[in-house]
Design goal:
Radius of gyration: 24 Å
Oligomer: single chain
Order of helices and strands: EEEHHHHH
Strand content: 5-15%
Strand order of the largest sheet: 1-2-3
Largest sheet: 3 strands, antiparallel
Number of strands: 3
Number of helices: 5
Helix content: 25-40%
Shape: extended
Structural class: alpha+beta
Length: about 160
């Protein structure tokens, strides 16, 4: 069984009401719209329950490209942006070029933040820990040579 809810379902939890440096607007309305599927052993999905009524206005066609479910950075686009960045072109300029080539922001398929997050995510996956190990080794040498130098770290394993 798999259930998909409206993106405005539920409400923000009030568990931590302390003063915060920023506040994020809660766009959820407690919408009860959903669709439920049963999936059989052969992978066939069958609709078993469906509530169509939303308690809010739906996104207009000219804004639908901003919905998370409608956005993704394609592998070709990501590769292109990565190559431009390696060549010294600013990422913002690469994104601007892709938007121009595709005919505008709604047609490129992602937002600027999506592109930055995709590249950052790809970079984080490529880290193998050698940078931190090198830094720890430098600190160990300093601690041996400098009596007033101290460091400590917590091993993530």
């Amino acid at each position: 069984m798999k259930t998909f809810l409206c993106s405005k379902a539920g409400s923000k939890s009030k568990k931590n009401s302390s003063v915060k440096a920023y506040s994020k607007i809660d766009l959820r309305t407690g919408c009860g719209a959903y669709i439920q599927f049963d999936v059989d052993g052969n992978g066939v999905w069958t609709v078993t329950k469906h509530e169509k009524a939303h308690n809010h206005k739906l996104s207009t066609k000219d804004k639908s490209h901003l919905l998370r479910s409608h956005r993704s950075v394609g592998n070709n686009q990501l590769s292109y942006l990565r190559d431009l960045k390696k060549s010294g072109v600013a990422l913002a300029d690469g994104i601007r070029f892709l938007k121009h080539q595709s005919g505008g922001s709604p047609l490129v398929g992602f937002t600027n933040r999506d592109a930055y997050n995709s590249l950052a995510s790809e970079y984080l996956k490529s880290l193998d820990g050698t940078d931190s190990n090198s830094l720890i080794e430098i600190f160990r040498r300093r601690q041996c040579n400098e009596p007033d130098f101290f460091f400590d770290f917590e091993d993530g394993d």
